Amino acid sequence: MTNDDQRASATELDTDAAGAAPISSRDPAHAPFPVVGVGASAGGLDALEHFFASVPADCGMAFVVVTHMQPGRPSLLPQLLSRHTTMAIVPLDDDMTVPVERNTIYIAPGGKYVAINDNVLHLVAMTDKVPRPMPVDYFFRALAEDRQQYAIGVVLSGTGSDGTIGVREIKGASGIAIAQEESSARYPSMPRSAAATDLVDYVLPPHQIPDRLIEYARHAFDRSERALSDADRGDGDELQRIFQLLRRHSGHDFSSYKPSTLRRRIERRMNVHHIATPKEYARFLQANPGEIESLFHELLINVTSFFRDAEAFEAIEQALPSIIGDRPNGYIVRVWIPGCSTGEEAYSIAIMIRECMDRMHRHFTVQIFATDLDSSAIEAARAGLYPESIASYVTSERLERFFTREDGAYRIRKDLREMIVFAPHNVTSDPPFTRLDLLSCRNLLIYLNSELQARLLPLFHYALRRDGLLVLGSSESVGTFGHLFDTVDKKWKIFQRREVSMPGYSAEFVSPVADPRRTIRTTAVVGKPGEPSLANVADRVLFHNLVPPSLLVQETGEIVHIHGRTGDFLELPPGLVTSLNVVTMAREGLGLDLAASLREASLTEDEVVRRNLRVKTNGHDARIDLRVKKISEPEPFHGLLLVSFERTRLGEEEGGAEPMGTSVRITELERELQHAKEVHQGVVEELEAANEELKSTNEELQSTNEELQSTNEELETSKEEMQSLNEELQTVNAELQDKLDELSRTNDDMKNLLNSTDIATVFLDNQLQIKRYTEQAKRVIPLIPADVGRPVRDLVSRLHYESFVSDAQEVLRTLVFKEAEVQSEDGKWYLTRILPYRTTENVIDGLVITFVEVTRVKGLQQQTGAILAALAKSPTAVFGLDRELRYTWSVTPLFGVTAIDVIGKRDADILPPDGAGALDVIKRRVAASLVPARERVSVSVGGVRRTYDLYLEPHRGSDGALAAISGVMTELEAVPA
Fold first, then answer.
1. What are phi and psi of 560, to 5 degrees?
2. Considering the entire predicted model, what is its pTM?
């Protein structure tokens, strides 16, 4: 279990009997239901449309869509998504605080963060302070904190790595994470970065994600209070079987971890595979060894980031000079970070130490030992390669100094990397690193039970050097070991090692060469090698002060050392011995004064003396003077109290024989005194019983308080600094803005082009419903804006075109365009063209119908037809020739050959040789000289000799050479041959 999970959520810290903590117990309206955060960037619109098109309207979930939009620009996303879903869509704005409701989609605007608190959405302004988080990461973190196991993160198409850190947060809260499959993403950077964490539960195309979400929700949330508790379900044996499989696979024993955490993680994996009982899941683990590895990683969620909880790191930075400021040159600064995860915290501390040395103009050798159970996390830490989204948490100055840019990511520089040794290590069973100046163990203890915590804290005290710093998570404390540490920062739980003596303690370490099921017990005693033993030093101090029977005790009264015979003053209490507290061991007549003296002496440096105390010892009374004084030196005993018992005289009758008249009075007084003592003794016993109950209650309250501290961590911490997009994302947004502006200009150009062509155009969809039209189309079909979406067959047209609908349907079916000339009611003619509408993906998505007015052309055609008819009856022929003297066109027949048949032929192809030769000579002369010619020529055709007046006009091309010849030939005479 790693220590970088900086949020001790209620998900992890609920009681063993609870399987799913309610999100809010304050308002019944906040019944738990899944909230899905959907993050997308470039190319995300297509993914969002496919995603929501597959979500049922009654799915029982809420969706919050966070995209990378330019601030201040209106979003068309609500209108675009409304075409693909019938769920309610709510765009968020600054004036709204929106309670989250089922079956609703909430759209985040650009330039704002979206936060969720107690099931209510609100917007947070982005500040100019850097570094600042990305919008998807920001919402995923807030979602994880508020919805816990009901938080779901979906990362769709986009550039960059936004959402990667947020996925870690959601997984740390026992939610689920899903990434879009790379092959289906137009821009796969965001989903690829999220999937690279190995924390996402599913990698799917967008249209398949909703089905998997609904299956998971139905299995995980639709059953009330599903709890994996031994008492309620009798699954304790199966859970132990699962733990055995984990230990056999990984070599790590999770039995000392909090049961509620383990049950929650196991149940989440069961929900992923739709398994109902631990018994079935145990069988599934045996049949699928790969799932054991997945469960192992599930229990080691690595929620971490650089400089996480910035104020905590500022507090650490302020405390660093106290441990290295007065060290000599060449000193080796030793740091241990157990549960380092993927190394972000280790590198963050290395950066701060390097900066601290620079500010102090000192140089030390720095050895940082970063350890973790997860070997894959250790490998990632050793590589030191992190996504570009770390720019949200690392300042640009630190990025430039300690990182190098590499393929869209940041890599730790070699000099910083060489300061750290990464190694697999189990803090609960492996020997610790020692002689440490700093031990950062943030949010590791919250996952461990109280027994293991009580074993680790003295171990941490032993591992630290004098004045070394211990850093815990904001929801952790040193508990009953407060006498071992001085508090440096109460809020951020930074403690300094106190040089105090304490009994030896045992710690179990697994032998690296022995059977991993066997352990070696060793006893570590606080103190430096070569120093005298605790007993020798204590005796030396007591003899030096020539004290009578005495004790060395802690402020709480726990006995550390006994000198001399103290049996006349102390006795072991009956029953089970749970502690050696001097107050509980005091004989009759001493307890109250001793307790008061200890309290008074702990508050002052002066000696506290209580004289002539009567102590009942073995049937007689003894008179003593009680002395209590706080010890300031030697250093190992600093803070202990010296308790001395000095005898004055034995308890004897004072004075001679009493007069006989007073004997009755004395007897009565003794009887009253005895009664008072009995009453006092009863009160004392009741008080002791009450104290025991209070102690038990206090322990329960302390445990509950730790749970509450974890649950309400954010109430102790200040709000995280508002951050915004990194520079690269701003560049991408600027490019997208340029593309949007270009698209807008293109749309304007197209609109002006269509209007300038004066062509009436109507766009239809595949159902022949009107999608859009140009202004000119109103002259052909009386259209109004309300007609968009109506079938074209229902509209009245001014054209005499009865087969219009059938022709349109045929074009849709055959994909072959149709063209027709039709006349309108006002006598105008239109050339109507019906063509398929093809998208950029070459998909037919309707029809394009154009109406080009050809009234003038039609009139010209009619006039031309009349002219041609007249020319056909006249003796004059008009024609054209190419360079090869072939006929290219003719208005009238030539030499008895129709105007169409003459095209492409020479005179030799249609005339006898003599006539063809005469014409050929004249034409070749004109082609060669490029000079017009007019001559008479006679040609025999069909037994008739005809005489023509021939005029030829040559035409030059752009190169000055002959391009064509046009000619006019008029018949003058026709006689029989």
1. -100, -40
2. 0.46
